Amino acid sequence: MHGVVRTSLALCASVYLLTSFFGFLLFGEATLDDVLANFDTDLGIPLGSVLNDAVRFSYAAHLVLVFPVVFYGMRVNLDGLLFPSSRPLSQDTFRFASITISVMVVIFLGANFIPSIWDIFQFTGATAAVCVAFIFPAAITLR
Fold first, then answer.
1. pLDDT per residue over 9-51, tens digit each?
2. Domain ranges in the chain?
3. Whole-model pTM?
């Protein structure tokens, strides 16, 4: 698993760096906060539609590479939270399938019914800020 994680992180980091670098080279000062939003318009360059499709494909490849890594950690931690004294998750196929299907359904419903990704970013940012500022220090002190 360590090799998979390292490879996935390296590929994802390279996608982020290349997207931001070439996005800035292409758009200059007109680069939006979300560089992918720049690719929704006609670029006004030769083969601009091919470039738009290449960027969309690379972003899809990034999601395909990073999702299993994040999902694995989330599934293991959720199992430890809900079933702390059970046998390992790899030995219980019913529990493994139940957690996987439940989380996938929640992700699917969230992806379909939350109107804007910015709502999720705001919620995540607010939650992370409270955790870092108040909850994690208190948990470390109590431990």
1. 888 788 888 877 877 787 788 777 766 677 666 667 777 778 7
2. 1-65
3. 0.56
